[in-house]
Write a structure and sequence with these properties.
α3 crosses α4 and α7 packs parallel to α8. This protein folds into 2 domains: 216 residues, TIM Barrel; 123 residues, Beta Barrel (Lyase, Ornithine Decarboxylase, Chain A, domain 1). With 362 residues, it is of the alpha/beta class. Strands 1, 9, 12, 13, 14, 15, 16 and 17 form an 8-stranded mixed sheet that branches. It has a 4-stranded parallel sheet with strand order 5-6-7-8. The longest helix is centred in the middle third of the chain and has 16 residues. The two termini are 27 Å apart. Pathway: Amino-acid biosynthesis; D-alanine biosynthesis; D-alanine from L-alanine: step 1/1. Keywords: Isomerase, Pyridoxal phosphate. It is an enzyme of class 5 (isomerase). Belongs to the alanine racemase family.
Length: 362
């Protein structure tokens, strides 16, 4: 007997493929697709399966060594030949294993360069102002030269801190610094795979001189900053649904959920829905959240619970087992939910737990 999940993330293959195509065309280069954090909450296995066959995807980028090993194994099983790049530094003991798996490794110091196995391929990480990871430009040239001399330098990258903002002056300065490093590096047998543009960078700049890859993160999954939403016809990839698990009536004067934050002014028909903050729905959305049920937007009543939330369905033809749309791609979006929870789309999506079953649809 199969025990069904109470909430489902429905992933649109056509939306993902369309987003990747649009982003690659605007960037003018293939994509190094970030699939970190469970593919931004969309499901690592599902997204890698779809993206690793996309003609505009050069490779896949991850944040942790464990993600790198998992994606490398999946790509090998799919036999698509897509490289995997680890974006953050591994520990010294992890380097040989990752190199054996063919994972491209980030390098930002001479010590890291000298510790690489001979067969490892590296991407030079350059800090141009993010002040998070990487070598500053002068040191980056020395590190990159060492890697090139060893025949290990495949790529170089930096990360824009403000490319999703209307004021692009700092992003222009970051790009200038990065291009200065690229110009100072020795020639490599194959063209150096330079990459800088995240989703905001692609939408703001389009094609960037000297770049051979682009790394659109959340934009790949259908989201753009408000002032850039008309640049490309991106579509959110995920629709999230749950189901009604219980129906009852709260009588006038009764309260709903913890702390008695909501009190019925009249008899109210209530549907309990099988999703809560343990699944990633923001508890801070209490008092503002809405869902779509029986074709209508209806308010979530009272405190959002760990596993459940309650919805006013008075007057609606609702039954136990009916679907409830938590968000979709048009009339109740992740952006709405993030605003109700005083957060951003990234946090809502990446917070989706493993109790939510991911399903791929055309």
């Amino acid at each position: 007997m199969t025990l069904a999940a109470r909430a489902h993330a429905h992933l649109s293959e056509s939306a993902l493929h369309g987003n990747l195509t649009h982003l690659s065309r605007r960037a003018g280069v293939p994509l190094l697709l970030p699939v970190k954090a469970n593919a931004y909450g969309h499901g690592l296995r599902e997204v890698v399966t779809l993206a690793a066959r996309h003609p505009d995807v050069w490779g896949l980028a991850v944040a942790t060594p464990r993600e790198a090993a998992q994606v490398a194994a999946q790509v090998a099983a799919l036999d698509t030949g897509r490289p995997v790049l680890l974006l953050t530094p591994p520990t010294p003991t992890e380097v040989p294993l990752l190199a054996d798996l063919g994972v491209r490794l980030p390098v930002a110091s001479l010590a890291e360069a000298d510790a690489l196995p001979a067969h490892a391929r590296a991407h030079l990480k350059v800090d141009t102002g993010m002040n998070r990871l990487g070598a500053r430009p002068e040191e980056a040239v020395r590190v990159g030269t060492r890697l090139a001399e060893r025949g290990q330098l495949e790529g170089a990258y930096t990360h824009f801190a403000t490319a999703d903002e209307p004021d692009l002056s700092f992003a222009h300065e970051q790009l200038r610094l990065f291009q200065t490093v690229l110009n100072a590096l020795p020639a490599t047998p194959q063209p150096l795979l330079a990459h800088a543009a995240n989703g905001g960078g692609i939408l703001s700049f389009g094609a960037l001189p000297g770049m051979r890859l682009a790394r659109p993160g959340l934009a790949s999954y259908g989201f753009a900053p408000t002032h850039l939403r008309d640049v490309l016809p991106l579509r959110p990839v995920m629709t999230l649904t749950a189901q009604v698990t219980h129906l009852h009536t709260a009588h006038a004067g009764e309260t709903v959920s913890y702390n008695g934050l909501w009190r019925a002014q009249q008899d109210t028909r209530i549907a309990t829905v099988g999703i809560g903050y343990a699944d990633g729905y923001p508890r801070n959305a209490t008092g503002r959240a809405q869902v779509l049920i029986a074709g209508q937007r209806r308010p979530v009543l009272g405190r959002i619970c760990m596993d459940q939330l309650m919805v006013d369905v008075t007057g609606l033809p609702v039954q136990v087992g009916d679907p409830v749309t938590i968000w979709n791609d048009h009339d109740l979006t992740v952006t709405d939910v993030a605003a109700w929870g005083d957060t951003i789309e990234y946090e809502v999506l990446t917070g989706l737990g493993d109790r939510i079953e991911r399903r791929v649809a055309p």
